[in-house]
Each structure stands twice: as structure tokens, then as C-alpha cells.
Design brief:
The protein has 214 residues and is of the alpha/beta class. The protein has a single domain, classed as NAD(P)-binding Rossmann-like Domain (Rossmann fold), CATH 3.40.50. The chain contains eight helices and seven strands. Helix 3 crosses helix 8 and helix 6 crosses helix 7. It is globular.
């Protein structure tokens, strides 16, 4: 038995597209780490991750492998668990997005928090972008949804993204993952049930996009 036998039963011949796909995942925190694990276990071989942060104790309620690597650089620690990974230890801001070459990648997955970087990604990569909005401060994973950017709602962070894109004259569509649940605290609270759902949903959307591509 192969570890991919069961997903092959679902995807059939489209499974080969996963093995050939080239994906870049920006941010490997509460959302991104679960997306990464899902992609890897589903048979995606070519994954590049980008993050600049190190693990601390506060990450351990929601981030894959964080309890094993406190004070270690995230991308380097994750490579121990997913040896085929390509890693980039960089802070993702709008200047980095502007300078980086996204052309080799089939899909760009955005699991970062920086608003200006998200805006830059939308303008540069919308054709192959799947973006995550706010997953923190919520408790109900059943409120997590997927739609195009202009149909998303119930998220103040997402509202700011839409507003800024309109100001810049951006009218294109791309997929976003968001929650319609009202936030439950003003503090930096987070629940793995929601953050992980965001990450697993992002992985599922990426797999759908790959498997339906020509």
C-alpha cells in the first residue's frame, strides 16, 4: 500500500497533476502550517514556503509542530518534517512581493497577516491566488466560507482589503477564505478549530484548482 492510495481513489488520473504542481505558500502559522501538512499528505511534491518568524510558546495552541521547535526558525524547523520543501526565510511585505518572481508557480497561497503585502499579492498574482482573511478571535469552524473577494463578508480585515483594492482600481476576482462569524474578543485570541479549518480549506481549494486545470 502507498500512503497516497486513498486520495488516488478520489482524484484518479488527476492525482498526477498534484505531483507535477508547483505551489508557493506564504506564511506557515496557524493557517499556513495546516495547509502545508494537508498539501504534503495529499501528494503535492513541489512546495516552497516563505516565512521569517520563529516559534514561541504562544504558537503552541494552533501551529503544527510548534511545541517541538520553540525559539527555532519556522521554515527551517518545518523542513525537518517535510524534507522535500524549498524554504525562504524572509519577511513578506509589499516590497518583497513586488520584487519576487511568482511566474514559476502554478498556485500562490496567501496565509499572511500583512495588509499591504496582501494588496500587492492580489494585484500581482490574482489569476493564481488563494488568500486567507482573518481566522483569529472566532470559535465556530462551520462559519468558514470560500468565495471570490467581492462576495466575502463579515470580516473587518477583509472589508479593508476590498476597500483598498477598489481605491487602487482593482476589479479582478480571486478566491478568498473567510469567516462570517463575529469576532469574540478584541485581544489576540485564537482557536485551532478555526485556524486549522482555514488552512485545510485553503489546501482543498488548491487541490481543486490543480485537479481541474487543463
Amino acid at each position: 500500500m502507498s500512503k497516497y492510495d486513498r486520495i488516488k481513489l478520489i482524484l484518479k488520473e488527476d492525482f498526477n497533476k498534484l505531483e507535477d504542481a508547483n505551489i508557493i505558500l506564504l506564511g506557515v502559522g496557524g493557517v499556513g502550517s495546516f495547509c502545508l501538512d494537508c498539501l504534503y499528505r495529499s501528494g503535492v511534491k513541489n512546495i516552497t514556503i516563505v516565512d521569517f518568524d520563529s516559534y514561541d510558546a504562544s504558537n503552541q495552541n494552533r501551529q503544527m509542530w510548534s511545541e517541538l521547535h520553540e525559539n527555532e526558525v519556522k521554515v527551517e524547523a518545518l523542513k525537518e518534517h517535510y524534507p522535500e520543501l524549498k524554504i525562504i526565510n524572509k519577511r513578506i511585505d509589499d516590497a518583497w512581493v513586488a520584487a519576487f518572481d511568482f511566474e514559476p508557480y502554478d498556485i500562490v497561497l496567501d496565509a499572511i497577516d500583512d495588509r499591504n503585502a496582501k494588496l500587492a499579492l492580489a494585484q500581482k498574482c490574482y489569476k493564481k491566488l488563494i488568500s486567507s482573511f482573518g481566522s483569529a478571535k472566532r470559535l465556530d469552524p462551520t462559519k468558514v466560507q470560500v468565495d471570490d473577494i467581492w462576495k466575502s463578508y463579515g470580516d473587518k480585515f477583509g472589508s479593508k482589503i476590498r476597500y483598498e483594492l477598489k481605491k487602487r482600481g482593482f476589479k479582478k476576482k480571486y478566491k478568498v477564505i473567510f469567516s462570517s462569524e463575529e469576532v469574540l474578543t478584541k485581544e489576540k485570541g485564537s482557536f485551532m478549530g478555526v485556524t486549522a479549518t482555514f488552512g485545510l480549506t485553503m489546501c482543498a481549494e488548491a487541490i481543486k484548482k490543480i485537479s481541474t486545470s487543463p
